[in-house]
Specification:
Oligomer: single chain
Shape: globular
Radius of gyration: 25 Å
Strand order of the largest sheet: 17-23-11-24-25
Number of domains: 2
Structural class: alpha+beta
Number of helices: 10
Helix content: 10-25%
Strand content: 25-35%
Number of strands: 25
Length: about 475
């Protein structure tokens, strides 16, 4: 167990202290929210003194704690007791120990330009926006940087190797890009990657060690040659106590990488930010066109529901299948939060490469007079001819869930699903191929133009034949 307050004075013994720093870079837009504001329905949290974007240490600690729990026990498992050895007891645990890890707030390296993202909930039965379900939020664009700092307190030397290995496993998620931060993480926002790790151990059994720790912020940044993008290597350099034990990864997930190309225009509208911009333009982030995970997840969910209602006809569990994968849809007056859970399907945001933006004008025609409706002239700026790499991650799939996802994906790869607005005029159609990486390391090529693989047939067959799911029917 983690050492607690062991003497009558309530002082925790400390024999050593690790200072670990790094640089966190946003790979996609991210929202670290502070609530409702004037600029948007959901605004970013900012430093009170500088006004720069702030990434709270609580958000970092919560994300890496959850990641470590997944690694040690698998997705949605009961938290392994070893997690509390590093992060301390959970809320409500009166006997829990104090955290051995101190996670500092991260202030952005520069005052990044803030973007506005629109969000809307689509009525699956009609394919249009639901009433009063439109909102917007502030996001930081890809490329924003945050300096990271973690301090690990060592109470007894015999615990050091175990604690350090737990910390390496937790921070390894930031290095590998497996940890997402902020809101709407399963829909492409908040993808991050940490680099430039530095680790220094301070021996607090001597006066010199205490002085070195007090100056640790400057010491860690003084030697750029000590930086490494491998957190394990950074910690091993400063650890002379032996070998760090490796922790096996217990997560089960299926990853799909789809290479898709636009066969038509694509228009996922973004809010105008200047008088001379088009009335409707395809969304960009950090000056580059993107395929938002929110839009892709929305169309995949709608198609999966349509397929489930057809395939599971007579079993009465189509909605339950979709809710299990994509997460239940909530209503404003819904009080039973015990049934809510996060999406098992993580849809990444993708960059659109080699696309061309055009700016056509459109008019609205009066269907009686066949003349132009007054004031109904507008221009658009869709994306044409681009390509993107779409990544989907299905966490801890049960038999049948992968089959449903593959059926929906097939419709996307064959151009049977339209993404974004103006689908009635032929926009938003993709075509492509994909690669399926199973949790046992096997890789399967998915090409709609060729016959299906036996593994794919088995996954689809499981969805077709699995007994009705429990729950409300």
């Amino acid at each position: 167990m983690t050492a607690g307050l062991s003497d009558p004075g309530g002082v925790r013994p400390i024999v050593g202290r690790w200072t670990i720093t790094g640089e966190l870079v946003l790979e996609t837009a991210a929202h670290f929210g502070s609530g409702v504001g004037d600029a948007a329905d959901m605004v970013l949290v900012r430093d009170a003194r500088t006004g720069w974007p702030l990434l709270p240490g609580t958000s970092i600690a919560g994300a890496v704690r959850s990641y470590l729990a997944d690694v040690l026990g698998g997705y949605r498992s009961q938290e392994d007791p070893r997690v509390a050895r590093l992060f301390g007891g959970t809320r409500g645990d009166d006997l829990g120990a104090q955290s051995s890890l101190i996670v500092f707030d991260a202030l952005a390296s520069s005052p990044s330009v803030v973007e506005i993202r629109d969000g809307v909930q689509i009525d699956a039965s009609r394919g249009v926006a639901e009433e009063h379900k439109k909102f917007d939020l502030e996001v930081l664009p890809a490329g924003a940087c945050f300096p990271l700092r973690f301090d690990l307190i060592i109470s007894t030397r015999d615990q050091e190797a175990a604690l350090l290995s737990l910390l390496v496993a937790a921070l390894g998620g930031l290095s590998a890009g497996d940890v997402a931060l902020g809101a709407r993480r399963s829909r492409g926002l908040g993808a991050v990657r940490a680099t430039k790790w530095r680790a220094t151990r301070h021996d607090l059994s001597s006066r010199a060690g205490w002085l070195a720790w007090l100056l640790s912020e400057k010491l860690c940044s003084a030697d750029p040659t000590a930086e490494t993008n491998d957190i394990t290597e950074a910690c091993k350099r400063g650890f002379s106590g032996g070998v760090l034990p490796e922790l096996p990864d217990q997560r089960r997930r299926v990853i799909v990488d789809a290479d898709i190309s636009l066969t038509s225009g694509l228009l996922i509208r973004s809010a105008p930010d200047a008088p001379d911009v088009p009335d409707a333009a395809h969304i960009q982030s950090a000056g580059r066109s993107v395929l938002p995970g929110t839009s892709m997840a929305g169309v995949l969910r709608a198609r999966a529901l349509r397929i489930a209602r057809l395939v599971r006809d007579g079993k009465g569990d189509a909605e339950h299948w979709v809710d299990q994968i994509f997460g239940p849809r909530t209503q404003s007056d819904e009080a039973d939060v015990a049934k809510l859970h996060a999406s098992k399907l993580r849809v990444h945001e993708s960059l659109i490469e080699d696309g061309i933006r055009t700016r056509p004008s459109r008019v609205r025609i009066d269907r009686f007079t066949q003349g132009v409706v007054p004031g109904a002239l507008f221009d658009e700026e869709p994306e044409h001819g681009g390509r993107a790499r779409l990544r989907l991650e299905l966490c801890d799939p049960v038999p049948g869930e992968l089959g449903l996802c593959l059926l929906a994906l097939k419709d996307l790869l064959t151009g049977d699903i339209a993404v974004g607005g103006s689908s009635s005029v032929g926009r938003g159609v993709f075509a492509g191929t994909a690669t399926l990486c199973l949790d046992d390391g096997r890789r399967v090529a998915l090409d709609p133009a060729r016959s299906a693989d036996p593994i794919v047939d088995e996954a689809i067959g499981q969805f077709w034949s699995t007994a009705a799911l429990g729950g409300e029917q």
